[in-house]
Amino acid sequence: MARVVVDVMLKPEILDPQGKAVAQALPRLGFDGITAVRQGKRFELELDGEVTEERLTQIRHAAETLLSNPVIEDYTVHVEHE
Amino acid sequence: MTPKVAQGFRVGVVTFPGSLDDADAERAIRLAGGEPVALWHADDELRAVDAVVLPGGFSYGDYLRCGAIARFAPVMTAVVDGAGGGMPVLGICNGFQVLCESHLLPGALIRNDHRLFSCVDQELVVENASTAWTADYEVGQRIVVPLKNGEGGYVADDATLDRLEGEGRVVVRYAGENPNGSYRSIAGVSNERGNVVGLMPHPEHAVEALTGPSTDGLAFFTSVLKASVGA
Fold first, then answer.
1. A21-65 residue pLDDT tens
2. Is residue B172 part of a domain?
3. How many domains does chain B have?
4. Predicted ipTM?
5. What's the pLDDT at B230?
6. Does B226 touch chain A (CB under 8 A)?
7. Smallest Cβ distance to A69: which of B68, B111, B112?
8. Has B204 been annotated as catalytic?
9. CATH number (domain holding residue B190)
10. Is B163 exposed, middle or buried (0-12, 13-18, 19+ CB in 10 A)?
11. Which of B64, B114, B155 sits opposite A14 (nearest CB)?
């Protein structure tokens, strides 16, 4: 079993109203010194068997067709080791 | 001059799991003089319709991103093919989000900048009256139709926005104060050919005095009937 993680973040030029709301809530709770928050999504994909370059290519394809919208989001893929 | 309306002009309305406004869209088509045809998300063909409306709602619960899963519904393959062949396609609210996710229209819709679900009677300016869905309007005409969504902020990069403006593909723009943070107050856009139009406000809710703030939305549905006879 292997786990591949896909992180999806809004592109920097796209407004993130949720991140802004979190950023405004933090100082109210006494968490000071945080100047900005961007909120993203994390997908944990469980694979049967080994992570191969071919499977990673497949996952990158899934990341850019379904898991992210390349018009507004960027993604990164990494393999998580135990 | 009496408008030429095609006899038996069939407009398909797709119901996805979570669609809300499919019945209202069908009603608007009927009031405009067309024949509404119910289409199901799992259909793999379009039952010989002449045009398609993707209605508002929350397809697949808005999971992942609004419209992201609906884009891969079986019926969308036929819709994308039809649009490529010039068939008129209108996406309203969630339908607009589906069209953007399908790359039939540029840009994307994100959460409103004020983070609230809004439901208002919204004034719009029609900026392109030559699309398949807006030919019955005048350029510069102001209309009032309901706007109701949580994720109606239209975004795209500057180059795309400049291209849309330059090519006259901003179909409707919010009048007055920007209600949701949409870049350049864009409420709806079209593809290059003008057969595919998407907008966040709901023209299908403004077709009868009894239930709408106006009847200003009806012309979207009468326009497409004329597009069919090549007027």
1. 999 999 999 999 999 999 999 999 999 989 999 999 999 999 999
2. yes
3. 1
4. 0.85
5. 45
6. no
7. B68
8. yes
9. 3.40.50.880
10. middle
11. B155
